[in-house]
Amino acid sequence: MQPVPSIKSRPVYEDIGIDPAVQKHLFIAQTGSFDKLAKLYQACPSDKSCWIVGDDTQESLPDNSRFVSQDGIDTVFGEQFADLPISSHIYVAGQNESFLWDIHNLATRAGLASEQVKMFEPVTNQRRLFCTHCYTLTEGVTHSPYECPGCGRLLLVRDHFSRIHAAYVGVIINAEDPNDIPETEELS
Amino acid sequence: MSAAMKVHVSAIRKVAPTIKEFILTPADGEFFPFSPGSHIVVEMQTDSKTIRNAYSLLSDPMDNRQYRIAVRLQPESRGGSEFMHHEVHEGDELTITPPNNLFSPDWRAKKHVFFAGGVGITPFMSYIPEMLRRGADFELHYMYRSTQTGAYVEALRDLIGERLHTYDSITSSRAEIADIMAHCPQGTHLYICGPESLIDTVRYRGQQTGWPASHIHYEAFAAPKPGKPFVAELKKSGKTIYVPEDQSLLEALEANEVEIPNLCRGGVCGQCRSPVLDGDIEHRDEFLSEKEKSDNRCIMPCVSRAKSSRLHLDI
Hints:
The complex is a heterodimer.
Chain A: E1 24-30, H1 34-43, E2 47-53, E3 66-68, H2 73-83, E4 88-93, H3 97-109, E5 117-119, E6 127-131, E7 137-141, E8 143-144, E9 146-147, E10 154-162, E11 167-172, E12 185-186
Parallel strand pairs in A: 1-2, 1-4, 2-3, 4-5, 6-11
Antiparallel strand pairs in A: 6-7, 8-12, 9-10, 10-11
Helix pairs in contact in A: 2-3
Chain B: E1 5-16, E2 19-26, E3 38-45, E4 50-56, E5 67-72, H1 80-86, E6 93-96, E7 100-101, E8 111-117, H2 122-134, E9 138-144, H3 153-160, E10 164-168, H4 177-182, E11 188-194, H5 196-209, E12 216-220, E13 230-234, E14 240-243, H6 249-255, E15 274-278, E16 281-282, H7 290-295, E17 298-299, E18 305-306, E19 310-313
Parallel strand pairs in B: 8-9, 8-11, 9-10, 11-12, 13-19
Antiparallel strand pairs in B: 1-2, 1-6, 2-5, 3-4, 3-6, 3-7, 13-14, 15-17, 15-19, 16-18
């Protein structure tokens, strides 16, 4: 279930359908999250293709799925997106929210409109954390406060989401007194 | 009217059978450069009323010596263009607003495609010098009727050569809009300025073919259309104002010293939104959502009017 955002910048993932007017549909899933878009993929009658980021560890993948390593997405999708016809939609499912927005940002850099990138609610609640003090990005953060591996500061993980960094913003939680260590809370 | 500026009309020339160009120079001080797609609002004092019309600036945005506008004569209107054509002479002084922009190019676009209909060429005249400076990829599709419009064709041909595609409805075939849209590469943004029929055609085609709506930009001719006369009652100021058929509600309010913040005077920017207590609204704007329109609780007085004979406003 999606948490109700208390901060405007936190993304909300809407229900997704297929627009029959759209010419080309590209489905992209991180390993382990194809199930999220399987139904829509099966229901899509028009020109479509399926890309998996990671390895083939699932049984239910459609024929002709293509695989891309996480390290290769900038090159592979960067070119792929720029060659799409203007009437295209991209559907993205991921374990992590940061993955969805990395794909979104690749697509918009290639010229697509934001509304052409359809994102499914992420499978886990793992966040990418952006330290506002040393700019370190940390993947897989699930609790707050979190010690920044870049500068060692204890960060409050805020709900404020940066689409450019595909990350949540972290700010020092005990700036006045470094001995004040608040209790750890799970993030939703 | 925000921060009015005085300007001199330093030259007037006919640039098409029904279009006159006006070169405006500063009465004092100097002009600022503006952003491509900007417009100014020109104030026109007729014997009976004040008309304020928005006109796109068509000069080079970096040229701060002059602002140029082109006005098409529209006999079936509220009289602004007739005033500009018949009452304004070289050497006259006019009052304008500083430039505002509601039709700026999206510089993230990989390619820009312009559809201009008739006098709708004007905003693109200010786009092109900036596009050339930036080395942007663009093409212009210019539709006109040479017995009426078609200004600047020769100048444009010299400036941009093959990137200009002209369609004179008197002598040549019509633009294949669907075909042009179908062949746009990924990352193209479309810009339309012209009559509503042209804007509707492009937007409808976009919906039919899955074009990203946020990459289709348009600007209609801003002047409000005339309608039935009605009476506006104002709760806060206690005034009762008669709005004649050829005056907009905003103009009638201004004539009665009720100042409303406004920018575009064409129903797109949202600045003049005003609350309505009672009466049926005839919405003519592009700003309010369908729900807001059906709620009947607010009006954009720059273009919208009353269906009923009275409108009660909470201003």
